Structures are given as structure tokens and as C-alpha cells.
Amino acid sequence: MTGSRTSHDASESMAPPRVDVETGATVGGLVLRLALLLVAAAYTGIALLPVVGDPALRWSVAVLLGAVVAGLCRPPVPHVLVVLGGLALAGGPGPFDPVVLALLPLAHLVLRLSWWCAHVAPSAAVELRALLPDARRLVVIQVALQLVGLVLLLVAGASAVPVGVALGGLALLGLTVLVLPRD
After folding, report:
1. Residue 41 pLDDT class (50, 70, 90 cuts)
2. Cβ(43)–Cβ(110) under 8 Å?
3. Residue 20's beta-bridge partner residues?
4. What is the band of 144 on the pLDDT scale with cuts at 50, 70, 90?
5. What is the pTM of this model?
6. What's the rounded mean pLDDT across residues 151-165?
7. How many Cβ atoms from other residues are within 10 Å of residue 113's Cβ?
């Protein structure tokens, strides 16, 4: 029978076409959450230096808060951690505490990793190619902020001038604007 279709031919034409998909190197959602836990714990542990003197207690609290942020990675949880860390340093001696230079990249990483964790399920993965533009942006922002921080450290070391405090406020404002997620 030429020209007539059998039921077998009809089922083959209804089958979806085969599609092969290749992906590059990936990072799992659990790995992102582990990285967030570690970075949030490091940020908290360093920020609590002037407040909690006992290292065992400080790092226990830091790991606990890091786990909370990694588990509840959606706003406002990571943002509250960053603000509380800044408030812990507010009572420090002098106009500019050098530990801020260590906290800036950690705070930035906490916010960016929490964004990625909120958008990548624990069982999913994200390609490294998707993470690279965010990582490049983070490096550029941190280099600029570290340079501003070093200038402020030099100014604050010479004398506590209001210009240094104003520059610090502008740097904090710039960091806030630059790291807020834009969905």
C-alpha cells in the first residue's frame, strides 16, 4: 500500500524531535549554599571582634548566623546580617576601623551569594559562564572600594577630619547602591 499510513507511521510523526543539549562546567546549588555559609560565618566572626571577646563564643555565633543566612537566603535575611555587622563596628575606636577593609568584600560576597542561592535550587546547578559576569563586577567594585578605604585609612591616621567621615559615608552609600540585587 503506497501512500497510505499505518498506525505505526502516525505515532512516529507525533513523537517530539530529539534535542541534545550540552552545558559547560557547573556549580551545584548545595555548593553555593556551603560557600554562603562559610562567607557569612567569616563576615560575622570578624564583625563581632569588638563586641564578643571570647573566640569560641564569637565563632559559634558566627557559624550559627551563617547557617541561618544559608538556609534563609532570600532578602531581608542577608541584608540584616550585613547591617548588624556594620553596627557591631560602630562603637569601635577612632573614625575608621581597618577591619572594614576585610568586611567590605565579605559583605559583598554574602549579598551576591545569597542572590544566587535564592535563584538556584539546592538540587539544581548553574553554569560557571553565568557566574563570571557577576564575579568580574564584584572584583571591579571591590578594587575601587578598597582603594577608597585605603585613602580613608590614611586620612583617618593623620587626623580625624570630617572630610574622611564624609568620604566613608559616600563609600558606604556607593556600596549599598552597587550591591543591591536588580531582579
Report:
1. very high
2. yes
3. none
4. confident
5. 0.73
6. 63
7. 24
**What single-letter amino acid sits at 91?**
G
d(CA 91, CA 87): 8
**Half-sphere exposure (Cβ direction) of 139: Cα atoms closer than 13 Å:** 6
More confident: 182 or 156: 156
Bridge partner list, 26: 127
Question: For residues 113 and 102, what is the distance between their CA atoms, to the nearest angstrom?
Answer: 17
What pLDDT does 115 receive? 93
pLDDT band at 150 (very low <50, low <70, confident <90, very high): confident
Q: Give the per-residue SS3 of the chain.
A: CCCCCCHHHHHHHHCCCCCCCCCCCEEEHHHHHHHHHHHHHHHHHHHCCCCCCCHHHHHHHHHHHHHHHHHCCCCCHHHHHHHHHHHHHHCCCCCCCCCHHHHHHHHHHHHHHHHHHHHCCCCCEEEHHHHHHHHHHHHHHHHHHHHHHHHHHHHHHHCCCHHHHHHHHHHHHHHHHHHCCCC
Q: Average pLDDT in the 41-65 region? A: 91
Q: Which of 113, 120, 164, 153 is nearest to 134 (CA)?
A: 113
Q: Is the CB of residue 58 less than 8 Å from the CB of residue 45?
A: yes
